[in-house]
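can u pls check wat happens w/ iron/sulfur cluster
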Amino acid sequence: MQYSCVDCGLNGCRRPDGQHPAFCPAEGFDLEHEPWLGERLADPENRRVVEAAAASAGTAFDNKLSRLEETVLFAKGIDARKIGIAGCVSLASEVRNAGKVLRAAGFEVVGAICKMGTITHADLDLHVGRKPDSVLCNPIYQAQVLNKEQTDLNVLIGLCAGHDTLFIKHSEALCTVLAVKDFKYDHHSVLALR
Ligand code: SF4
């Protein structure tokens, strides 16, 4: 078995003087010896995100902000003007509320719901135990719609595991997840880990 961070009870990487286990994958890491990483962190686009995320996450930690509030701070930090919301139709009410909050915060907002395009299992010749006329989620199209809108940041709300991967893969804008789909735990997916 290969040991890694999932087996670590020390988590010493949280502090400069923290203890690391012998199997630590970051053993020997030194920024000076990772020129490729230094180059990527110095890239202006990445630098902008690093700075904005450090500020918004720090403020959220200090003030116990909600993820929605943190997302607003992050979006402002990267000077986002137009925000895309890639949402699940079963969370349509929450998607609408997110649109209202983000518009009130000064952003232009455009939404793309998972079932848009209304393609069916029959359309794709899919045989996975669903009725042929069941409508499929359409994450590549969601991404395409938001790409055409030239959004600065896409916010995911409730996309299923797998559909989210295709959306993120095809999104031209940065993506952040506001909520994930969890049928069992009412979308509080971390509860399965406690
Ligand atoms: S990076 Fe090293 S110290 Fe940090 S969690 Fe992983 S194994 Fe533990």
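The two ends are 24 Å apart (CA to CA).
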